[in-house]
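Per-record layout

source: Profundicola chukchiensis
name: Cytochrome C and Quinol oxidase polypeptide I
length: 396
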Amino acid sequence: MNSGNKKDLFFGFSSAFFYLFLVGILGLLMRSSEWIMLPLPFKNILHAHSHTALLGWAFVMVITGILNYFPLKWKALKAIKIAFSISIIGMFISFLYQSYGAISITFSTIFVLLAYILLKKLLNEIPKEGFDNTFLRRGIIYFYFSTVGIWLLGPTLAILGKSHWLYDAGIQFFLHFQINGFLLYAVLGLIFKQIPKDYHPKDWASHFLDTGLLLGTALIAFWVSNNLFFYIINLISIICLFIGFIPVIQSIRKFVKNSKPKNAWILTWIMFGLAGKLIAHLTNLNYDFIEALRFNRELVIAYMHLILIGVVSLGLIWNALSLFSWKLDKFFKVGIITFATGFYITEIILVLQGFRIEGLNTASSILWLFSAIMLLGVLVMLGTFILLSRKNLGYK
């Protein structure tokens, strides 16, 4: 994280890329579970993977980007940054060690409380005017929303048990507002910070997106109750998301077409990711399909990866490159393409598996191979980013 200068940007982004590298290692390790005996329980690796991805890589990249535009003159910022780093590494190690337990929950709680403090400071700094600022502010608000699901887990586990529907609903609530709310909104806000206001969508688009996001919680209620009322509410949320996202995609497309910004091809991939999100929502029109979707692990993972990698991660990488305004090193470009290629192939395989397409006997091997390719891409980006930073920032 940073306080408004290039060297702080470097430390924030490079630490985030390191967390992404850790996420890639754990992802590849989980893909290896069909052939080797894992050194740790699968669920431990899964929980360390997800927490480091959301609260390490994505959160740090988002906050670093926001602090570039709204640097805090706050004496405690340096201490907060150190505490965040300790809590993230603490979560990574403790979840590997014990999954959900006293130590991992303690580090997670510390992280969330630190996030509350820092995000409140940022919320006070970000103006209310402008499409970009609106997205950043609402993204922060949705972070607070998402953590309601986290605070539900402890009492539910203690009183009702892990098998109770409220436990799963708490996790789904957290992921819904964390991924579709905080991260997606914040990344779009950072992207539109780089786009001239002439290209910004009208304010009504954000209102439809908010309505779609909030009504989207009906899907969680539908999975619990199988009630037609919640199915209809979820359909309304899909309509609102279409109305809201189409002008957002069109705005980015016009900016790319007319302005030809640096690394515009990354923005094109992000538009494809947003379009893919809308297509994924169309599958929810089928009553029987949406009923079974809760238990379709492949499609659930594919959707989460679509947003977290296809939109959020690529958007954060584009934002980092834009903030530094460096000429894109060919090795970094190779790293991004390698990373994105691995993502798209694994995404296609997961979707085919989710729709139970026959003839995927080698799917596990392909998933492992392209997960390894993604990890290689992350390693190339991390190494090149550090070398570029040392060269451009004057490090010896």
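summary: Residues 131 and 184 are 14 Å apart (CA to CA). The longest helix spans residues 228-259.
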